């Protein structure tokens, strides 16, 4: 069994994790979270999103957060930039990498960004052109790769089409997201097998939600398929406002625990990561969504 020796985690907690919280979160708390995460050894942190505050109120202070974080050498501080205006705002904040977001489901694309998959891909062309001009790397997301709340099952070939288009237009990496968390290990392996025919596996990442408690199993299945990059969210923060019943992203702490048990290097200090997650959970006055964090904290109590 040949598992990757090194795995990179893309920490999405400050953006994907916080964007759906109902209560206001101060810029200072967001900055503290990002700094805590980089101090724990995360080499990639998705800090915020340059979208209209009308649609995502929690991301309104992203420029201020970028201005105040303590940037560490070797750490990528990225942002979601769904349109050219968002990209220009990200550029002003000295963002070195941006992400664009497509869906593998036509119905979800319409619900999420009010356009078809093909139209969403067309919208990314000016962003890709501007990014190339300014030397900014672009990462692509594909949502609903293992099921959609509106369209049901999604064919792996449909996922491959969207991933292939994003890769062809210049996304250096394409993250495949199980938005409703309904995927199983078998379906995950099949999906990566099909997509991997069109996009090199070293350019693919996995993004799993834990709605059915299968996220860690699906990550292990992905490792067996040679995938070595995974999105995760500290304390399991996050969900999807357009996917009814979807719970949070897989907790970064739980993924690190899995990797440690497999002898796979991530460069992340689990104790510091748990402390970062617990601190933001106290700010939000909510329970920690990481099983590993809860178990470790209970031992210390």
TrEMBL record:
InterPro entries reported for this sequence? Aldolase_TIM, HMG_CoA_lyase_AS, HMGL, PYR_CT
Q: What is its EC number?
A: 4.1.3.4
> Which pathway does it serve?
Metabolic intermediate metabolism; (S)-3-hydroxy-3-methylglutaryl-CoA degradation; acetoacetate from (S)-3-hydroxy-3-methylglutaryl-CoA: step 1/1
Note the CDD domains from the entry: DRE_TIM_HMGL
What the record says about family reads: Belongs to the HMG-CoA lyase family.
At the top level, the lineage of the source is: Bacteria
This protein is called: hydroxymethylglutaryl-CoA lyase
The record's PANTHER family line, in alphabetical order, gives: HYDROXYMETHYLGLUTARYL-COA LYASE
Q: What SUPFAM superfamilies does the record tag this protein with? A: Aldolase
**Top EC group:** lyase
Q: Keywords of this protein's UniProt record, alphabetized?
A: Lyase, Metal-binding
State the organism of origin: Zestomonas insulae
Q: Which residues form the Pyruvate carboxyltransferase domain?
A: 7-274
Q: Name one GO molecular function term.
A: lyase activity
**Record-linked Pfam families:** HMGL-like (PF00682)
- Organism classification: Bacteria, Pseudomonadati, Pseudomonadota, Gammaproteobacteria, Pseudomonadales
Q: Catalytic activity, per the record?
A: (3S)-3-hydroxy-3-methylglutaryl-CoA = acetoacetate + acetyl-CoA
């Amino acid at each position: 069994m040949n598992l990757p020796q090194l795995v990179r985690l893309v920490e999405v907690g400050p953006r994907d994790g916080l964007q759906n919280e109902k209560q206001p979160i101060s810029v200072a708390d967001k900055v503290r979270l990002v700094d805590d995460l980089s101090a724990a050894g995360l080499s990639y942190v998705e800090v915020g999103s340059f979208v209209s505050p009308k649609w995502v109120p929690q991301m309104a202070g992203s420029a201020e957060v970028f201005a105040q974080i303590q940037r560490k050498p070797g750490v990528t501080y990225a942002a979601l930039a769904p349109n050219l205006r968002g990209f220009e705002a990200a550029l002003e904040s000295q963002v070195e990498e941006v992400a664009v977001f497509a869906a593998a489901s036509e119905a979800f694309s319409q619900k999420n960004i009010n356009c078809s998959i093909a139209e969403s891909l067309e919208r990314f062309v000016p962003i890709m052109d501007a990014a190339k001009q300014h030397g900014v790397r672009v990462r692509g997301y594909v949502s609903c790769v293992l099921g959609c709340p509106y369209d049901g099952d999604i064919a792996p070939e449909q996922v491959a089409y969207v991933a292939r288009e994003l890769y062809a237009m210049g996304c250096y990496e394409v993250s495949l997201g199980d938005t409703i968390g309904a995927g199983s290990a078998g379906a995950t392996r099949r999906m990566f097998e099909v997509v991997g025919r069109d996009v090199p596996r070293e350019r693919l990442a996995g993004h799993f939600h834990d709605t059915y408690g299968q996220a860690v199993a699906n990550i292990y299945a992905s490792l067996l398929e040679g995938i070595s990059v995974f999105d995760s969210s500290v304390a399991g923060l996050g969900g999807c406002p357009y996917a009814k019943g979807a719970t949070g992203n897989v907790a970064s702490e739980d993924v690190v625990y899995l990797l440690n048990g497999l002898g796979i290097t991530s460069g992340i200090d689990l104790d510091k990561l748990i402390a970062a997650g617990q601190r933001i959970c106290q700010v939000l006055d909510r329970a920690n969504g990481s099983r590993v964090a809860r178990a470790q904290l209970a031992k210390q109590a």
